[in-house]
Write a structure and sequence with these properties.
The complex is a heterodimer. By secondary structure, chain A is of the alpha/beta class. Chain A has 15 helices and 19 strands. Classes of the chains: A alpha/beta, B alpha/beta.
Chain lengths: 467, 196
């Protein structure tokens, strides 16, 4: 008898979506869910119109507005952004696609709303014209970002041509120290494997520290897979996953739920299945992290100092030197001595309810340091409403934070929430590229706990550092 | 997509690794709903520095960009490819291109060329020494030639044919519509739908 082939989670999910496989071709992969937003879709819809094509499966397509929406009702929308939002509305209407536009209770960052609605489920393929689509891998789905031409291709065919990815395991074993959150785990992983550490692979995050995380923590981890150069990130579905999905709006119900559960329980990587690469990380060694440079691997723990480029390995020196000049940092400066002008609590990485609870606890009864501008931008209007039911908005407002509507906001500086040239920001977002949060702005990536403590202290700090 | 058989031209040497798409085209350019109008945004922030290589007139008119590893990392914005295209570039050479960026190149006919790191270093050196040298990228043969250098690059057959013939990807896929329909017929009933 031939032993059944042992497969990884990623291979199982990939293989069940192959519509066509032939020598000399990538696989033609079926897409279960296509998420759309206003910024990377207008040219795709225009392409469909020009070729007189329709959307093959509007029922598997969801649109929202998140990238350039203003996050205060009073903010005027510039004409070009308005035109883009109008185009999204017109395209959704013309092609019969469900849209949650600005002003609706379901609106929010695309990677926050889909799981909340129960549209993100184990074993699916999910794509979006956005590189942080890997977020949905937290459910055991294969989820990745695509460009606008591929958005058009998925709209027209519900499929994509894609080569079968390699597999990589990042195993995090042990208990996370107190004060170390999911964001620190992924920053620690990227600091270790580098911005090209995951190239060509779907990373499967596993081990006791990953299993111990909530779904929201797992989403934070998978979200930043692209920052390690990976095609996607995934976590095996388990009872934590099922409990999160059950009873959500689009989750299977009744007998369908039972059938789905049986299927999902067979998805985890088989014992003895082979990953092309494996990295093991001791959870007990992780600390809260702060990025110092202009890519997410240029990161150290909050207890360390700004590195000296000359002390780094030769291949990293030149980029480190350039990053320090851009960031206006001096080697040897303790991270805690770096003062900030702004704090941004938001983005598809860290703007879910648990993130707001952690940060809210830190700021309770305290005041944002004079001169620091602090923003909370919930990931979705549903997150915002829940936070308000819990009184978190009051905690933040009383501490001196601005309490905003949902959107991508200062993560990428497409709406009016931007840094001024030279301003320094502690940000819970995912990218510290030059100018990412506004031309000349300087971004340091941190967890919500560190962001909140930093807002109070005026320089990088842990909650326990606060008086 | 336009068909590309060969790219022949001078090169711009951008000797940096991890050039992300926020540098190639900053986010505020992404508010446009058209496929055109991005050329002036290419490397917008870096171009303000007079010492930036693109401001060196010896490289004016270059049609091939040579860069360090992991070029095009970060955001999935295809606008990065459109901006390069409009600024006159027909090919990008690097030790490795970020995956989404590379896929986007293949959709627009911007030729993505990945060479070994030492070959890229050598090319950068050649162009530094003499900005006027001509580089030939032969898509059909998958080769790069410059004075004193001949290298081959990988391009799978599927992408190769599409580039050479400038095929409409969607039309190619729709020829497999029966297979897609057959796949759809056996999808599990519990999978989520916006009709629910």
């Amino acid at each position: 008898m031939v032993a059944a082939m042992k497969r990884t989670l990623a291979e199982k999910v990939w293989d069940r979506h192959v519509v066509r496989r032939a020598t000399g071709e990538p696989d033609l992969l079926y897409i279960d869910l296509h998420l759309i937003h206003e910024v990377t879709s207008p040219q795709a819809f225009e392409g469909l119109r020009l070729a007189r094509r329709r959307v093959r499966r509007p029922d598997l397509t969801l649109a929202t507005m998140d990238h350039n929406v203003p996050t205060t009702p009073a903010t005027p929308v510039d004409d070009i952004s308005l035109k883009q939002m109008e185009a999204m509305a017109r395209n959704a209407r013309e092609f019969g696609i469900r849209l949650y536009p600005m002003g609706t209770p379901e609106q929010g960052i695309v990677h926050v709303i889909s799981p909340q609605l129960g549209l993100t489920e184990p074993g699916m393929t999910i794509v979006c014209g956005d590189s942080h689509t890997a977020t949905h891998g937290a459910f055991g789905a294969i989820a990745f970002g695509i460009g606008t031409s591929e958005v058009e291709h998925v709209l027209a065919t519900q499929t994509l041509w894609a080569g079968r990815p390699g597999t990589m395991a990042v195993t995090v074993e042990g208990a996370l120290p107190r004060g170390v959150w999911a964001k620190d785990v992924i920053l620690g992983i990227i600091a270790r494997i580098g911005v090209s550490g995951g190239v060509g692979a779907v990373i499967e995050y596993r081990g006791s520290a990953i299993r111990g995380l909530s779904m929201e923590g797992r989403m934070t981890i998978c979200n930043m897979s692209i920052e390690a150069g990976a095609r996607a990130g995934m976590i095996a579905p388990d009872d934590v996953t099922f409990a999160y999905v059950e009873k959500r709006k689009h989750a299977p119900k009744g007998a369908e739920w039972e059938r789905a559960l049986d299927d999902w329980r067979a998805l985890p990587t088989d014992a003895g299945a082979h990953h092309d690469r494996e990295v093991r990380i001791d959870a007990s060694k992780l600390r809260p992290y702060v990025s110092w440079g202009t890519n997410p691997a240029q990161t150290v723990t909050i207890d360390e100092r700004v590195p000296d480029p000359d002390a780094l390995e030769p291949a990293l020196r030149e980029a480190a030197g350039r990053a320090l000049r851009y960031m206006d940092l001096t080697p040897g400066t303790p991270i805690r001595d770096i003062a900030v002008d702004a704090v941004f609590l938001g983005s598809c990485t860290n703007a879910r309810i648990e993130d707001l609870r952690v940060a809210g606890d830190v700021v309770r009864g305290r005041r944002v340091r004079a001169g620091v501008r602090a923003l909370v931008v919930p990931g979705s209007m549903l997150v915002k409403a829940q936070a308000e039911r819990e009184g978190l908005d009051r905690l933040f407002r009383d501490a001196g934070f601005e309490w905003r509507d949902a959107g991508c906001s200062m993560c990428l500086g497409m709406n009016p929430d931007i840094l001024g040239p030279g301003e320094r920001c502690a940000s819970t977002s995912n990218r510290n590229f030059e100018g990412r949060q506004g031309p000349g702005g300087r971004t340091h990536l941190v967890s919500p706990a560190v962001a909140a403590a930093t807002a109070i202290a005026g320089h990088f700090a842990l909650p326990e550092d606060l008086a | 997509m336009r068909a590309v058989q060969r790219v022949v031209g001078r090169a711009l040497p951008l000797d940096r690794a991890n050039v992300d798409t926020d540098q190639i085209i900053p986010a505020h350019w992404l508010k446009r709903i058209e496929r055109t109008g991005y050329g002036a945004g290419l490397f917008e922030a870096w171009r303000r520095d007079p010492a930036f290589v693109m401001n060196d007139l010896r490289y004016a008119g270059a049609s091939i960009l040579i860069a360090g590893a992991n070029f095009g990392s970060g955001s999935s914005r295809e606008h990065a490819v459109w901006a390069l295209d409009e600024a006159g570039f027909s090919a990008v050479i690097a030790p490795r291109l970020a995956e989404i960026f590379r896929a986007n190149c293949l959709k627009s006919g911007l030729v993505p060329v990945e060479l070994a790191a030492d070959e890229v270093t050598k090319l950068l050196g050649l162009v530094h020494d003499d900005p006027r040298i001509e580089i030939t990228i032969d898509v059909e043969r998958r080769t790069v030639e410059a004075p004193g250098l001949r290298a081959t690059f990988a391009l799978d057959d599927h992408a190769h044919v599409r580039l050479l013939e400038g095929l409409d990807d969607i039309a190619v896929t729709l020829a497999h519509a029966d297979e897609i329909t057959a796949y759809e017929a056996q999808r599990a009933a519990w999978l989520p739908s916006l009709r629910d």
